[in-house]
UniProtKB/TrEMBL annotation, chain A:
Protein name: Phosphate transport system permease protein
GO-annotated cellular components: plasma membrane
Membrane-spanning intervals of the chain: 21-45, 65-94, 114-139, 151-170, 270-293
Keywords, sorted A to Z: Cell inner membrane, Cell membrane, Membrane, Phosphate transport, Transmembrane, Transmembrane helix, Transport
Automatic annotation (TrEMBL), chain B:
Keyword Transcription: no
Biological classification of the source: Bacteria, Pseudomonadati, Pseudomonadota, Gammaproteobacteria, Methylococcales
Protein name: Phosphate-binding protein
Keywords annotated in UniProt: Signal
Residue ranges constituting the PBP domain according to the UniProt record: 38-277
Domain of life: Bacteria
């Protein structure tokens, strides 16, 4: 039995090597083409809006019936909910990651991480339903608002949604810092909190940035949950920092309106342009983050 | 010998597996192809939806034809029919000129299946505090943002939560046409812009100071329909008899729309809804049937 296996594998491996190689190359190519195609299709279909509306796209009035397609209100909403979500989720998530990675025993860490990853798998529409049925009502009562469907509600809901991502990837980042650095630091007589602040966190910086980036992508792109709780009105509040009013994000606008438009109409084109704007935003933020947190800055491998 | 035998076996097994997969795939395709012939797709207005869903169940029991019904709103119903994605569009408003122009190759044929009213609704707290009727002018001013507090209308000292609907929704077209004279008018007074009847109903229920617009069949103990004060001073309650005799000012026909004259299963389904049994479903859903 053993001899047979040994004699088969070397001959097969020459073949399977070639097949495996081709398979991997083709898969990579397909993935790359899909990404390029998405960008290309978005650009082609938004061209009508770009070429005819031009600067009018960056006004704050969206009224397809009158031919006005200003996306500023949606752009504002998207940026605002993302900023709120990250402002809440980063400190909370990092503190939890520090707990699971630095303070929790190895055995418990495994279980806690398992539960967190389960949390990350909950479909977003469930968050949305809980948000619209309970959370927005509580928030409305708490702040004595006219309606609990606000930009803040969406931001907090998003924070809860991206929290597992930040915690579990943040925990990995901290855990990957090699033991010898901690031991050396401890050997120099540093307190545990000094080890964390001066040794572990700076070393894990790059990977933590990666976790935040992934959370940011999810927050910007989340549709269903946001759509249900944000109120759906294309308005920029008179005071830019007043987040307890209803608003609209790019994704919630797309979710609500794309089906109502005729394919390839100006309305459709303007909506696709918003999609393109979202893509550009994500790409730009990714590029900036990668520039500042280059993997090359890592001290360990 | 041993080596080539092993290889042959593996190749043989791989071949057999591939064949199994292909056969399975083919079977699935055939089954999918078969069922497709015996089904109809409908989509659109959430006002018409309850009727069509119930009718679809009965129709399947009677004729064995599946009718797959989806929501989305009147605008979606017209677009998907125009693009040939569905056989029957459900709409609760007239097709606009822009929509007819948008699909020059499609001959929209509408079939009236019942009648409904669009009723201005308020949270029960407001209704109980004494706001039981408003004039169309007053409602219009609320949506334009000229009236912002219930106090201005003799109610409690609370800001009005003005709930608007997405612009292509049938309920909004009908409501705004009568209230402000333009079915696609902007409503600068709006605080929330929501979608289907359920979403609107939930938001009015959750608030204690909201005004919205709903199909008559969606009123309940938390969502109260307002009577409308006519120009001659009399008030009309949103009741089925006032809808059928046309006294209530904001009424509409519930429509199914097909591309060209219906034939085959499509015709059979529409005829079923127009039959006595189908019209009973219309009444049971809270609407006014055609003979009423």
């Amino acid at each position: 039995m053993k001899g047979k296996k040994l004699s088969v594998i070397p001959v097969m491996s020459a073949w399977s090597n070639r097949i495996g190689r081709a398979y991997i190359l083709i898969s990579t190519l397909i993935s790359a083409i899909i990404i390029l195609l998405i960008a290309l299709v978005l650009f082609i279909y938004s061209w009508e809006a770009i070429s005819q509306q031009r600067a009018d796209l960056f006004t704050s009035i969206w009224n397809p019936a009158a031919g006005q397609f200003g996306i500023l209100a949606m752009l504002y909403g998207s940026l605002m909910v993302t900023v709120i979500a990250l402002a809440i989720a980063i400190p909370l998530g990092l503190a939890t990651a520090l707990f699971t990675s630095e303070m929790l025993g190895v055995r418990y860490r495994f279980h806690v991480k398992f539960l967190l990853e389960l949390l990350a798998g909950i479909p977003s529409v469930l968050y949305g339903l809980i948000g619209v049925a309970f959370f927005s009502v509580w928030l409305g009562d708490l702040f004595d608002l006219q309606s609990g469907r606000t930009i803040l509600t969406a931001g907090i809901l998003l924070a809860i949604m991206v929290l597992p991502t930040i915690i579990t990837l943040g925990d990995d980042a901290l855990h990957n810092v090699p033991r010898q650095y901690r031991e050396a630091a401890q050997g120099l007589g540093l307190y545990p909190h000094e080890v964390i602040i001066h040794i572990v966190l700076p070393l894990a910086k790059t990977d933590i940035a990666g976790a935040v980036l992934l959370a940011l992508g999810r927050a910007l792109g989340e549709t269903m949950a946001v759509m249900l709780v944000i109120g759906g009105i294309d308005k920029i509040p008179p005071s830019l920092v007043n987040i307890m009013v209803p608003g609209q994000t790019i994704t919630s606008k797309l979710g609500r309106e794309i089906e109502e438009t005729a394919f390839a109409s100006m309305h459709f084109s303007a909506l696709i342009f918003m999609g393109l704007a979202l893509l550009v935003m994500v790409l730009a933020l990714t590029a900036i983050a990668q520039h500042y947190f280059r993997p090359g800055l890592r001290l360990y491998e | 010998m041993l080596i080539s035998g092993g290889r042959k076996n593996i190749i043989k097994r791989a071949k057999k597996q591939a064949l199994d997969w292909l056969t399975g795939l083919l079977l699935i395709l055939i089954i999918a192809g078969c069922t497709k012939n015996e089904s109809l797709n409908a989509a659109g207005s959430t006002t018409v939806l309850p009727i069509v869903v119930l009718a679809a169940e009965r129709f399947k029991a009677l004729h064995g034809v599946n009718v797959i019904v989806n929501a989305g709103g009147s605008g979606v119903g017209i677009n998907q029919l125009g693009e040939g994605k569905i056989a029957i569009g459900m709409i609760s408003r007239n097709i606009s000129d822009a929509e007819i122009k948008r699909y020059p190759n499609v001959n929209f044929v509408v079939h009236s299946i019942g009648k409904d009213a669009v009723v201005p609704v308020v949270s029960s707290e407001i209704y109980d505090a004494g706001i039981k009727s408003l004039s169309l002018r007053q409602i219009g001013k609320i949506y334009l943002g000229e009236i912002t507090s219930w106090k201005q209308l003799g109610g409690p000292d609370k800001d009005i939560l003005v709930i608007d609907k997405e612009k292509s929704r049938g309920t909004r077209h009908v409501f705004m046409e009568i209230v402000l004279g333009d079915k696609e008018v902007s409503a600068p007074g709006a605080d929330l812009v929501l979608g289907d009847n359920n979403e609107e109903q939930t938001a009015v229920m959750q608030s204690d100071s909201a005004i919205g617009m709903l199909s008559n069949a969606w009123l309940n103990s938390d969502v109260k329909g307002l009577s409308i004060i006519l120009q001659n001073g009399s008030t009309v309650e949103p009741k089925l008899e006032n809808i059928s005799n046309g006294r209530f000012p904001i009424t509409r026909d519930l429509l199914l729309v097909t591309s060209g004259e219906p034939a085959g299963n499509i015709k059979a389904f529409i005829d079923f809804i127009l039959s006595d049994e189908g019209q009973k479903i219309v009444r049971d859903s809270g609407y006014v049937s055609l003979e009423q």
